[in-house]
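Internal QA ticket QA-208
Title: Verify multi-chain structure generation after dependency bump
Assignee: T.L.

Test input:
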Amino acid sequence: MKKDSVKIVTIGGGSSYTPELIEGFIKRYDTLPVRELWLVDIEAGRDKLETVGALAKRMVEKAGVPMKIVLSYDRREALKDADFVTTQMRIGRLPARILDERIPLSHGMIGQETNGAGGMFKAFRTIPVILDIVKDIQELCPNAWLINFTNPAGMVTEAILRHTNFKKTIGLCNVPVNMVAGFAKMLGVEEKDVTMEIQGVNHFIFATDVFVNGESRFQELLDKYAHLSAEDTIQMKNFVSLPYSPAFIEGLGAIPCPYHNYYFFTKEQLEEELEQFKTGTVRGEVVSETEKELFELYSHEELAEKPKQLEMRGGAKYSDAACNLIQSIYNDTGDIQYVNVRNNGTILDLPADSAVEVACRITADGPKPLATGELKLPISGYVHMIKAFERMTIEAAVSGDRNLAVAALNLNPLCPSDELANIVVDELLEAHKEYLPQFFK
Amino acid sequence: MKKDSVKIVTIGGGSSYTPELIEGFIKRYDTLPVRELWLVDIEAGRDKLETVGALAKRMVEKAGVPMKIVLSYDRREALKDADFVTTQMRIGRLPARILDERIPLSHGMIGQETNGAGGMFKAFRTIPVILDIVKDIQELCPNAWLINFTNPAGMVTEAILRHTNFKKTIGLCNVPVNMVAGFAKMLGVEEKDVTMEIQGVNHFIFATDVFVNGESRFQELLDKYAHLSAEDTIQMKNFVSLPYSPAFIEGLGAIPCPYHNYYFFTKEQLEEELEQFKTGTVRGEVVSETEKELFELYSHEELAEKPKQLEMRGGAKYSDAACNLIQSIYNDTGDIQYVNVRNNGTILDLPADSAVEVACRITADGPKPLATGELKLPISGYVHMIKAFERMTIEAAVSGDRNLAVAALNLNPLCPSDELANIVVDELLEAHKEYLPQFFK
Amino acid sequence: MKKDSVKIVTIGGGSSYTPELIEGFIKRYDTLPVRELWLVDIEAGRDKLETVGALAKRMVEKAGVPMKIVLSYDRREALKDADFVTTQMRIGRLPARILDERIPLSHGMIGQETNGAGGMFKAFRTIPVILDIVKDIQELCPNAWLINFTNPAGMVTEAILRHTNFKKTIGLCNVPVNMVAGFAKMLGVEEKDVTMEIQGVNHFIFATDVFVNGESRFQELLDKYAHLSAEDTIQMKNFVSLPYSPAFIEGLGAIPCPYHNYYFFTKEQLEEELEQFKTGTVRGEVVSETEKELFELYSHEELAEKPKQLEMRGGAKYSDAACNLIQSIYNDTGDIQYVNVRNNGTILDLPADSAVEVACRITADGPKPLATGELKLPISGYVHMIKAFERMTIEAAVSGDRNLAVAALNLNPLCPSDELANIVVDELLEAHKEYLPQFFK
Amino acid sequence: MKKDSVKIVTIGGGSSYTPELIEGFIKRYDTLPVRELWLVDIEAGRDKLETVGALAKRMVEKAGVPMKIVLSYDRREALKDADFVTTQMRIGRLPARILDERIPLSHGMIGQETNGAGGMFKAFRTIPVILDIVKDIQELCPNAWLINFTNPAGMVTEAILRHTNFKKTIGLCNVPVNMVAGFAKMLGVEEKDVTMEIQGVNHFIFATDVFVNGESRFQELLDKYAHLSAEDTIQMKNFVSLPYSPAFIEGLGAIPCPYHNYYFFTKEQLEEELEQFKTGTVRGEVVSETEKELFELYSHEELAEKPKQLEMRGGAKYSDAACNLIQSIYNDTGDIQYVNVRNNGTILDLPADSAVEVACRITADGPKPLATGELKLPISGYVHMIKAFERMTIEAAVSGDRNLAVAALNLNPLCPSDELANIVVDELLEAHKEYLPQFFK
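Actual output:
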């Protein structure tokens, strides 16, 4: 039944991440024969797509694999008969991200792009577009898998699950693989031998068990994690959070992900971001600079591989995770990966039709999540809170209900007050007006 | 089957609240013939009990009802054949409460007695004692109803439900009746015509529907509540929270209780408490003063009724609520009251064996909660979070696990940091060492 | 808010039950001032409606109450501004019922009208019509309460809950009130002092607790029920099932309703029905005879009250139950009645959006079910099985899927084999073709 | 961490199945180095154990693997430091089985050993013994895995889960692997390429999805299954049930397991068994004969391998399944096997702490079930019914409550009446009195 080759469509193909994706497909060509890769973008992104597309073609040619790169500004033409669709678009591009970050910070509120106000507005801009893409997929390539790595990946996945009847959607994030890498390092074992049980939602997961070659080493790891030295913390900064007290970690009985810094070290995170705000170096601004440099590099005609500098862009393992996922589906490998899927009882006390980020066995029929039972008591309150925030945000994104947006933001632990929730929602609505017609009916 | 008369045992009988309870039983004597009222206290409270007991006897005599008041320092003797047991004891008395409040405040953390650090330590001191009382009840008066209005009333109820097999326990609070009073005022109707649907846990409930003579007036009320004038807010300060934005209330679709100030107006509440901290007027200190004055009053031999000043003590409707509840059980009235009971699916997405505070039909077989379905989405995250805090606190109270205590406190939204969670837990453990043997094994 | 008077619309007004309904409204006029009662029927029922309508008018006149009786063949005209709509129609009239009973019996299968094959086909005929009625209500009298006592009342209620967004629907049955009457007799107390906790679905309920003046007398009652004499069984034949063994009842820990005879005494019930089949006296045939006689009686111009003979019609307390329900809603009485409503967690392990038959507090905002927790273990399997049968039947009624109909019937414990399920479904489809267009697309 | 070699203890080692187990371990020696295999039995089984043990030793010697076979009549000595414990004992041996079958049949009731009355009494005899074994394991080899293939395997597993705190227990059955084999044949593919999603409990599972190399071929398979020829049915008699109608299978949307014959073709199955009853050839009787012949064979000193005849014993793949499971745990293979484990939300609407038989990923940390969501509607009623029967049976097995036993049996669809439930329970209690002290206190 397995096709001899696959057609992949990447929406937001002009992204600076694309070379990593290309490299990933080239590396895996033997087991994942990508016949056609369509890079799709909007007219406004023509310059970037042309640059990235040219590099992609040079990379493929140099590698000597028979992969056809097609650049397209016509999403519907591209989608026809696709086997996999990946989405990595950014509605409003980096300037919108900078607003998502700077407007909240201008009022002393964390404005990070997937949690709190920033993530909320990224959801508001992205969800209507993704729902349109799904409509096209259902018409033009109904058997394709949609692999979304546009943030907020969890909310985007849940929006599709709740507002369409399309089932073949998977949300992807690089946080879990970074956690695996960190745990492997702490235990002195190889990454490939480590698997986790995780409970939570995108950017808000906890490791609740960790296995080396299938045997639980969790208690040992938890004890180590509870007593990290300052040095450890610095060395593994992509993975370890700011230092928690031993008592907290032991009482929690679960290992937080790096994004928990925002919730458990709000003061420290806010101080750092306010400094960036002052110096014009919020994440979106830094990334804009990096991107400029990357596109400068990409345009060199002699360049025919992914430049090292891309790895500094952040989110480096994202494209690799996407390639792995596609390869495992194509080959029915049955390995464990960590993705956002319909809960379906995997976390017993979250709604069955919500998206959760959990360990799944990857098969040709998609990810099959391993049951985890009820949320461990200490993490249950917080996970429910973030899930409620996500669900309210999705409803507001679809309905354009400002009241719901204000309530959702005020209920988010990163928002310090009702008053600020109103101010920040209004300023962000105004700033992104162009992309938020649902709120301006 | 109904007995001709009832025997009531009040544990913590030396409390300054007792005269209100006496007044309540006297007023209701026609429908609730209390034959014997045993006021029980510990030796250390002999002075207070003697004073209160003498007043109680004068009140009964003046009222001309044949109610026998018995003072006792022997709990087991008192419990024999009781029909109702009420608990209003305070382990460590008011000095312990002052520590619960001042120690957290000394580190800039809210130390209120039922939420956050203060409530946690009140639970730690109270739960082991209440579990012992339940053991005595099961032996000496197994058919009695235990009506607890010792705070934290929700946690105490859940501790009994989870750690004993005694079913006839009800937790009582005056917040719901105050909400009913406030809603009646806002709608210009009589209190007796108002009923509510509420969802939540003790000191953390939301009105999700409000009826006047059975017809829902909720949307109208919500709109009014969303647009309260500053004057309204001041006039109804026992009931209305600090002013929320219209958008938040409309987006929430539910009306918070006054205790939500602690969570939604943390900054304002903290400022006020820090001021009290400085001036030696935290609630426990104020109440200590009031109590001194009350006991001074109580000791006047000519006094034979509840003095007006008691109403300023706070929590004024507590005893009234207790009398109403006992009267409704005794007479199988079938009226609606708001109490803490085993959830049993009433709030569909909270654990069946947790305590919740909900509207119940009061019958001779106890409170029968009315199903409310799932938590309304906007309130679901927060309610889960507080429930998780409660459950962790109960487990720590029973096991004496300091790690769990630290984790529970850090996960409470009133706690600003992991570091402070550790410091405050340690200082409170040390301060209350005498009453917390489970933590010092 | 309460209206001074109410308009009631009765669909299927030409039913022989109507005089009881009229009597009920007359009796309650002081507390339930029915200004207008519209009796609606289809043209094919004109004769019956005219006869019943004339009797109704004579009854009202004799009683001297200012209740206007309006006969109508235009449902939409009738519904305008109604306060309550009652439905008691029978699609295909009694001849259809006779087919529902005789066709299964001709193959040796019980063909009772609410369980098994008969009930399934009554659902198939009724559900599409009731969904149309709901559409009219939503347009013409959206605030009206729809009180359905057309069988199968539970499935009809669930069909409305799942396939429309209309909430104000209540299904009504006389089984629970007959159980209350029986229990009162067994305990030697008055009916009005007895309340029950029940778990189950329409025609498949179990009493799981029974209270006299609010005190549980369940264990005593269960013991009595477990040891009924043959004489008791005969005397209370409307209520007591065939005699169960003491061990079964004690092990069950719940008291079955009379309809459980079909499931627990299938052999005996089948033998009785096969005898009726041979003698032309299946229930539908008997009722046809009775109806003829009743209409003969009704047409006597001197008759101006409900004739005694109607009580032999069976289902006698139905109309009374309907009048009580309407009166309690109108007056917000808060009394306990047993109706079919959205589950909403009342029975914790049945779907929240299914209909269940449970004890409810009746208010002006409708029935508020009292939480019952999980199904008692011994009854849980059977209740789930019947609920699955109901849900499959509803889906088949809406979709016209014959396979689903066959599977549903074969899964019903009254159906002896897959082969017969196919035969009986096909014969009934053919026999009722006229009323089942959804199966003949 | 993986040990170099493993110690396995087989309780009921004198079983005629043992040679298959030995063969299984020999075949897998390279990947599963069994250093010691202890065959444990009771004194009464000394003859059989000596015979089987001698054969086992000859088999090992011939194979030339360094596996030590130890015969023991001291369970506690044997368990010390075991890595895996398998249980295949039969309390009361085959004569008890014959009673389990013949007594119900003497009253016209199916008496099969895992469903209905026979299975119930096997549970009554086995559960107290298995709970004792678990106590020993917890003391003597707490890290061992207990792999139970004593029937009723599902109830035994649930009894351990509910009545001990031992987690490392797995129930095993050969039905799922036989279904895989049958599906592979029907689709013309290899067994190793087929995986299933199943929902249900032991001997009552339904295939709800079937994959070939990970791609769902379920609809195709369902259609084939719905239209099997009579010849197919005969050819695959170990796997295919009696022929269902196409409509039933399509409406069910799931493929039953062979044991469903008992429920869906009760009449046919009963007729067959009554014939066997008359001729003295009920299963237990046939197996007794076979066993005699097998032991005759086993005692030949020249025999040093598993005789072909054992395959006719029935349940042939049981031991193979056990070896596979142990091998996968030992090697952390991550392959899919179908075992009885704690539900934990895998089947969303069955209790979390019940045992279910589902597809699991087998790891060094045991089986990790793949979430399946809610029971498919058509199978939900029946599965709940059998689960309720199982849970009542377990409670009766532990408590010795005859009433519960009668109620459980009467609620089982194989029991035709309450009267027979009482008779059959009493006769079986009497017949097995020696092994059922809990019922004769």
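Spot checks passed. The domain at 6-171 of chain A is CATH 3.40.50.720 (Rossmann fold).
Status: verified.
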